[in-house]
Amino acid sequence: MSAALAGAVVLAVLAVAAAIGALLRRRDGRARATRARSVAPADIGEAAGAFGTRATLVQFSTEMCSRCPAARRVLAGVAAEVDGVAHVDVDLTHRPDIARAFEVLQTPTTLVLDAAGVARTRIGGAPRREDVIAALDTLEHSHA
């Protein structure tokens, strides 16, 4: 193999890797609709009454997650600002059963539950405040 051909192959591999990385970064933290699934506080190891009267932001975290503290601040901040919204942080470090049940492949992962405890939105990665607010607004408009 010539040096020019080897260089071209290396550049092509780097270009493909950069494109894949850009796509993954673009999707990270974005809210998307999820299949409706009813979630009870007991399903995630929480006491009855832990959920909000309007909505619940369920954050799945682990002890070693570097982006989970920032996600926690965003979600707790939104919950403090919006009446009837609760934030619940579920540590999956010692609960692989919950991770499997909710198909959590990365942390943080956030579920936005409606007032009935039905998951309506899923955010993989660090959530953006504006996406969380938009998901809550969508809940409001779907019940209006």
Describe the structure.
The chain has a single domain, classed as Glutaredoxin (3-Layer(aba) Sandwich), CATH 3.40.30.10. It is α+β, with helices and mostly antiparallel strands and 144 residues long. It has helices spanning 3-27, 68-81, 96-101, 129-142, and strands at 31-38, 55-61, 85-91, 109-114, 118-124. The model has no long low-confidence stretch (mean pLDDT 86). The protein is elongated, with a radius of gyration of 19 Å.
How many domain modules?
Answer: 1
- What is the mean predicted local confidence, pLDDT? 86
Write down how many β-strands occur, each being a DSSP E stretch of 2 or more residues: 5
**Major beta sheet summary:** 5 strands, mixed
What ranges have pLDDT less than 50 throughout 5 or more consecutive residues? Answer: none
Order of helices and strands: HEEHEHEEH
How far is the N terminus from the C terminus?
Answer: 66 Å
Alpha-carbon Rg, integer: 19 Å
Strand order of the largest sheet: 1-5-4-2-3
Reading off the top of the CATH hierarchy, the class is best stated as Alpha Beta
- Name of the CATH homologous superfamily: Glutaredoxin
Q: What is the tally of helical segments?
A: 4
CATH A-level architecture: 3-Layer(aba) Sandwich
Give the structural class: alpha+beta
Helix content: 40-55%
